[in-house]
Amino acid sequence: FILTDTTIKACQYNGKGFFDLTAANVTTYTPVVKKFYPTLADLNAATNEITTPANYLSAAGIVYVKVTTNEGCTGNAKITLAYLPTPVVTEATISECYLENNETKAAFNLSLANVSTESPITKKYYPTFVDASNGTNEILNPLAYVSANAAVYIRVYNSNGCYAIAKANLVVIPPKRSPILVDKIICIDARTNLDAGPGYQSYLWNTGATTQVLSGVPVGDYWVILKDNGCSVKQFVSVKKAVDPVISEIEISNNTATVKVTGGKAPYKYAVDSPTNWQDSNVFTGLSRGQHIFYVKDAYNCTPIFVEVTVPNLLNAITPNGDNKNDFIDYSELAYKENLSFVIYDRYGNKIFTGSKFNNYKWDGKHFDKKILTGTYWYHINWNEPNKEKTPIKYSGWILVKNID
What we know:
With 405 residues, the protein is an all-beta fold. It has helices spanning 40-45, 129-134, and strands at residues 6-10, 12-13, 16-19, 32-37, 56-58, 61-69, 74-83, 92-99, 102-108, 122-126, 145-147, 150-157, 163-173, 184-186, 192-195, 202-205, 213-217, 220-228, 231-241, 246-253, 256-262, 269-272, 283-284, 290-297, 305-311, 317-318, 329-330, 338-345, 351-354, 362-363, 366-367, 370-371, 375-384, 392-401.
């Protein structure tokens, strides 16, 4: 019978391939028995027989087959092991815009990974190289694969059914928000500009403007769609009304007033009677008795706030001797003020008089209808001005009582 040397081919991975030696057509004579050996010496010695000839893992090379007929005739043939072409692949990168509900991830179309120029090819996708090598955990949604920055691995098959593994890097393009587009605070009747900053492909404001700067906008809420690197992000920004400062309290001692302010934005400026002569100090001296208007503005320089205050005409001495001259200290004219409080103390802090509607806020220098000793006494007069802020006014000082019989 006739034996012919032949060649069989298989796909190779990492320098080896699985060869089906039984498919080697070395003779047309039948029936025969074939035994395969890695070397001719093994064949001659009948040693190291290949026991898995249908799935023989080997590098390219030569093996030998011993063929025996039913009649007992034998012969040898050489089988050359060669590789089928393997696809040539390259590493690729896919970039996609972030997901709005998860900015660290994107939905990738893995089929866009340009890992080979050969044609025709088919692809299968895997999350790790180990999975790609073992053919496990195949990615079944390659057209919309949600992932953070990572890599996937692709089996690229050619028409022979051989494959190579290619790496595809997945890059999430993050939103590029403007670092300079921040909320602003302005006066209620003012206007301002909103600058989204340079370097974007396009701008689209909620007003319809398509410029980098949105000019002359009043208090309100705004947004702009910024496009960069093919991806867009909607950024919100607010123009807020400056919160007015509040004159929380005015303390008056004789003819000196101290204006206390809360809220707004320091530093504050202060003025009295006219919003022109501004000063940094909140203390005003040399005030005349009667009505005064105190003005305050903060660092935003908006329309000043103001409070009108009564500086009382307080006597520094009374002589309650019944001659109808300086017999009383009388604050009945302040009775219309809210929460009016008029209290006099002695040097030890003992309360000796409390003004009320019943005594009409008048004191005759007596304590429980008895004349007090001649001396200096201290007083506090407090009230709230009848404005919407109910500004507290605190007046303090001293008075000399001369009891002359």
